[in-house]
């Protein structure tokens, strides 16, 4: 990894760029947009790219990365690429084949980070959120410690440089950390985190264990209808963020990103718009905020906006 890009050291000795580019878009958005946006992001200076098997966009994102390698903009080792193991593939024997399928789509030899996408095993199949006849999610019986051992083997086989988790609470993290014979600790826990959901307790716990917290939904999430309460306030319209944006002559988006970076959190920011991609990259060059955001002044400090909210929470025990 080129030292020009600000990075954080992971507990296995690898480095993660502190600002990452999110590539998820709902199914209605043509997948080709992920290729164009990822190329623009690399041109703008992003070196950390976040995608997932479940986003069904790894062919397109891989194409963008390879084309930016081919035109000389970057080398493979300059890019930090994250993929994620879907909930339907948590059975240990499914882990390596699933990662190999991602690599085949990406046409890359390895990923930099492979993480368990969601700590709730679901029945295998094409549908990533399968339902039973009664409308409840079709859950599966898998011990996450067995899944973790399969991830450790993928790291040993060189298919991924680092391994981690996503959407884990403290109890689920402890289960892995306390696993007898643990070979590698998770390097990160990727969770929803922004001024409306500060994750202070989880952040303290992760820091105490040497686990990096990676934040998604930092710009208010994509407010995907099945997952978000449409009546919930829109983060980037928050008056506290607005006042700070005015004071620092930045946008609310840049204040939200900087606020998290200052707390030692790695930030993902998604945009498929060229100007906003360039705008978000500016954060890496901006000086720190003098004050912290007082979350009590923002509309809410415990407001989940993404997929842990609403329908999923009714069905699954968080
Ligand atoms: N592990 C998980 O379970 C999980 C869950 C959700 C997301 N993620 C990852 O995290 C990434 C980011 O999270 P997210 O997709 O929820 O979105 P986000 O980063 O919170 O962005 C939300 C929206 O903000 C808009 N935006 C971007 N830059 C902006 C700016 N400077 N000013 C105003 N608006 C701006 C974007 O729209 P435009 O495209 O129109 O600019 C985008 O759709 C995802 O893409 C994915 O890679 C992971």
From TrEMBL:
<feature type="domain" description="NADP-dependent oxidoreductase">
    <location>
        <begin position="19"/>
        <end position="285"/>
    </location>
</feature>
<keyword id="KW-0560">Oxidoreductase</keyword>
<dbReference type="GO" id="GO:0016491">
    <property type="term" value="F:oxidoreductase activity"/>
</dbReference>
<dbReference type="InterPro" id="IPR018170">
    <property type="entry name" value="Aldo/ket_reductase_CS"/>
</dbReference>
<dbReference type="InterPro" id="IPR036812">
    <property type="entry name" value="NAD(P)_OxRdtase_dom_sf"/>
</dbReference>
<dbReference type="Pfam" id="PF00248">
    <property type="entry name" value="Aldo_ket_red"/>
</dbReference>
<feature type="binding site">
    <location>
        <position position="117"/>
    </location>
    <ligand>
        <name>substrate</name>
    </ligand>
</feature>
<feature type="active site" description="Proton donor">
    <location>
        <position position="55"/>
    </location>
</feature>
<comment type="similarity">
    <text>Belongs to the aldo/keto reductase family.</text>
</comment>
<dbReference type="InterPro" id="IPR023210">
    <property type="entry name" value="NADP_OxRdtase_dom"/>
</dbReference>
<protein>
    <submittedName>
        <fullName>Estradiol 17 beta-dehydrogenase 5-like isoform X2</fullName>
    </submittedName>
</protein>
<dbReference type="InterPro" id="IPR044482">
    <property type="entry name" value="AKR1C"/>
</dbReference>
<feature type="site" description="Lowers pKa of active site Tyr">
    <location>
        <position position="84"/>
    </location>
</feature>
<dbReference type="InterPro" id="IPR020471">
    <property type="entry name" value="AKR"/>
</dbReference>
<keyword id="KW-0521">NADP</keyword>
């Amino acid at each position: 990894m080129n030292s020009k890009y600000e990075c954080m050291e992971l507990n296995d000795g690898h480095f993660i760029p502190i600002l990452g580019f999110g590539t998820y878009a709902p199914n209605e958005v043509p997948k080709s947009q992920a290729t164009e946006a990822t190329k623009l992001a690399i041109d703008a200076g992003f070196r950390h790219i976040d995608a997932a098997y479940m986003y069904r966009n790894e062919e397109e994102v891989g194409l963008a990365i390879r084309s930016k390698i081919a035109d000389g903009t970057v080398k493979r080792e300059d890019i930090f690429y994250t993929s994620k193991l879907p909930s339907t593939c948590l059975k240990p024997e499914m882990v390596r084949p699933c990662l190999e399928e991602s690599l085949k789509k990406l046409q890359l030899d390895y990923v930099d980070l492979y993480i368990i996408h969601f700590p709730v095993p679901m029945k295998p199949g094409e549908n990533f959120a399968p339902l039973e006849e009664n409308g409840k999610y079709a859950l599966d019986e898998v011990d996450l410690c067995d899944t973790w051992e399969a991830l450790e083997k993928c790291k040993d086989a060189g298919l991924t440089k680092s391994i981690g988790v996503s959407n884990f609470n403290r109890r689920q993290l402890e289960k892995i950390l306390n696993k007898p014979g643990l070979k590698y600790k998770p390097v990160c826990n990727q969770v929803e985190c922004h001024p409306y959901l500060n994750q202070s307790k989880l952040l303290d716990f992760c820091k105490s264990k040497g686990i990096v917290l990676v934040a998604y939904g930092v710009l208010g999430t994509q407010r995907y209808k099945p997952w978000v309460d449409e009546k919930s306030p829109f983060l980037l319209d928050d008056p506290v963020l607005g006042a700070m944006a005015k004071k620092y002559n930045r946008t609310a988006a840049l204040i939200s990103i900087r606020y998290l970076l200052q707390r030692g959190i790695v930030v993902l920011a998604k945009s498929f718009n060229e100007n906003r991609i360039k705008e978000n990259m500016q954060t890496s060059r901006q000086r720190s905020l003098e004050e912290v955001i007082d979350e009590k002044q923002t509309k809410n400090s415990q407001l989940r906006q993404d997929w842990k909210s609403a329908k999923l929470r009714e069905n699954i025990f968080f």
